[in-house]
């Protein structure tokens, strides 16, 4: 069978943005089987935060593989899980003392919602328009960043109510973005669901797939207040924005709030499938043993990689680097904005940054400009992704240890891509 035939075996439902087969990777660079070199500004969708194959992560995983791979969590404790749990409760802001390890982002969200329902004995969930929380049957019902994630799958899980997210760029000019969104939440609580039926308010601290939407901190503070007022738990989905990506360990540190439950995945283990629900024992203490969990959760190799990931981020100063490089990246696009009216807004925190593209002299979404820009960047071998409800946002997710030379290289390519696309 030729390689082209083998490619046809892979389900076509999986989208693919890069036109090459990857052979290996090192830091911010990917190498194709044809021997070509690509700069990675996607990081496997915010996963390879420490760069690909960081030596500390590789060494820790190699060492653990030789000891035990599958130390099943219902059978025993294992040291990497104990050490990673201790590290997570140290770096996640708040008063946390309990961690459940599972395998993917969606699974962490599923478990956090189940935890909220079981521990409050309440049935309903508030999520937000534009949210992305995964593709499983529960999480697609929580998601509404694009119709493809939920269309053709109905009926969806019930008891989920969507309120408006604070999206300053797309709030009517006559309205205050925070009041507008929070009054939308009040409307949901007045007209659609009893407040004392709400188990949790689930929210991304920056909407990721929905378009890298950074809400004003007063919106997130308002959600914290509202959750307390109605006795619901506040779940912060830090799956894309966490693990140093925004120039803080966790994005919600920018807003001065703490959560009741935090979901962590993607960057947690530099590419090993691992996720975590970080919370307080008072909530897990109300759940029946065995009612949450799974066969593979907290894999020993993944946990060892997770500990090494946190050490690498700390020791190599990656969080400060993410803040600095993110500012430079956004500064570059803000300068371009004066030249290209297609750039409607430049936004982001740290290395979770994006540009929203519009039809000139309007705020009408311009998905064609996004597709063209991304294609031009990829043609020049800088792997770049789009996102957004309207497919009109280019997002930039390089490794957190991106060097000055690597950023300059990307900005050179983006200068040419902008010239060709806008
Ligand atoms: C905020 C957020 N939550 C949940 C998920 C789902 O994670 P996974 O794809 O690992 O299931 C994602 C993935 O992009 C995400 O960005």
Summarize the structure in words:
This protein has 422 residues and is α/β, with parallel strands linked by helices. The protein has 2 domains: 3-53 and 317-421, Aspartate Aminotransferase, domain 1, CATH 3.90.1150; 57-315, Type I PLP-dependent aspartate aminotransferase-like (Major domain) (Aspartate Aminotransferase, domain 2, 3-Layer(aba) Sandwich). It has helices spanning 3-8, 43-46, 55-65, 79-91, 105-120, 137-142, 177-191, 217-230, 281-284, 300-315, 318-339, 367-379, 404-421, and strands at residues 22-26, 29-32, 37-40, 98-102, 124-128, 160-163, 198-203, 233-237, 261-264, 275-279, 343-349, 352-357, 382-383, 385-387, 393-396. Strands 4-10-9-8-7-5-6 form a 7-stranded mixed β-sheet, sandwiched between helices. A 4-stranded mixed β-sheet has the order 1-2-3-13. α11 (318-339) runs parallel beside α13 (404-421). It is globular, with a radius of gyration of 21 Å. Bound molecules: pyridoxal-5'-phosphate. Pyridoxal-5'-phosphate is lined by residues 45, 104-106, 109, 132-134, 204, 208-209, 237, 239-240, 265.
């Amino acid at each position: 069978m030729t390689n082209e035939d083998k490619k046809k075996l892979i389900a076509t439902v999986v989208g693919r943005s890069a036109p090459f087969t990857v052979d290996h990777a090192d830091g911010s660079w990917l190498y194709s089987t044809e021997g070509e070199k690509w700069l990675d500004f996607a990081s496997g969708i915010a996963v390879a935060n420490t760069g690909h194959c960081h030596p500390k992560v590789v060494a820790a995983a190699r060492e653990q593989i030789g000891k035990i791979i599958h130390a099943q969590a219902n059978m025993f404790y294992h040291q990497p899980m104990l050490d990673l749990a201790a590290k997570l409760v140290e770096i996640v802001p708040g008063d946390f003392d309990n961690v459940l390890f599972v395998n993917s982002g969606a699974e962490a969200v599923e478990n956090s919602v189940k935890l909220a329902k079981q521990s409050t004995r309440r049935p309903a969930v508030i999520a937000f328009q534009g949210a992305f929380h995964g593709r499983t049957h529960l999480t697609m019902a929580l998601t509404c960043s694009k119709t493809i994630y939920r269309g053709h799958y109905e009926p969806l899980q019930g008891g989920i109510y969507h309120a408006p997210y604070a999206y300053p760029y797309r709030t009517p000019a006559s309205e205050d973005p925070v009041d507008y969104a929070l009054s939308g939440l009040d409307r949901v609580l007045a007209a659609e669901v009893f407040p004392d039926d709400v188990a949790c308010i689930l929210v991304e601290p920056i909407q990721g797939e929905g378009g890298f939407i950074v809400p004003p901190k007063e919106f997130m503070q308002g959600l914290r207040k509202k959750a307390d007022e109605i006795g619901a738990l506040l779940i912060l989905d830090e799956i894309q924005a966490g693990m140093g990506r925004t120039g803080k360990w966790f994005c919600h540190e920018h807003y001065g709030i703490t959560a009741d439950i935090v979901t962590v995945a993607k960057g947690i283990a530099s590419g090993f499938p691992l996720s975590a629900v970080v919370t307080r024992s008072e909530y897990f203490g109300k759940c029946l043993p065995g009612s949450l969990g799974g066969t593979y959760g907290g894999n020993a190799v993944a946990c060892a990689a997770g500990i090494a990931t946190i050490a690498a981020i700390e020791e190599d100063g990656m969080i400060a680097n993410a803040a600095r490089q993110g500012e430079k990246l956004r500064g570059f696009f803000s300068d371009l904005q004066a030249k290209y009216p297609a750039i409607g807004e430049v936004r982001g925190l740290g290395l979770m940054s994006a540009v929203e593209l519009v039809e000139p002299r309007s705020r009408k979404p311009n998905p064609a400009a996004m597709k063209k820009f991304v294609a031009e960047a990829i043609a020049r071998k800088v792997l770049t992704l789009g996102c957004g409800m309207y497919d009109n946002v280019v997002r930039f997710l390089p490794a957190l240890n991106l060097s000055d030379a690597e950023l300059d290289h990307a900005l050179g390519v983006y200068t040419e891509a902008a010239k060709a696309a806008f």
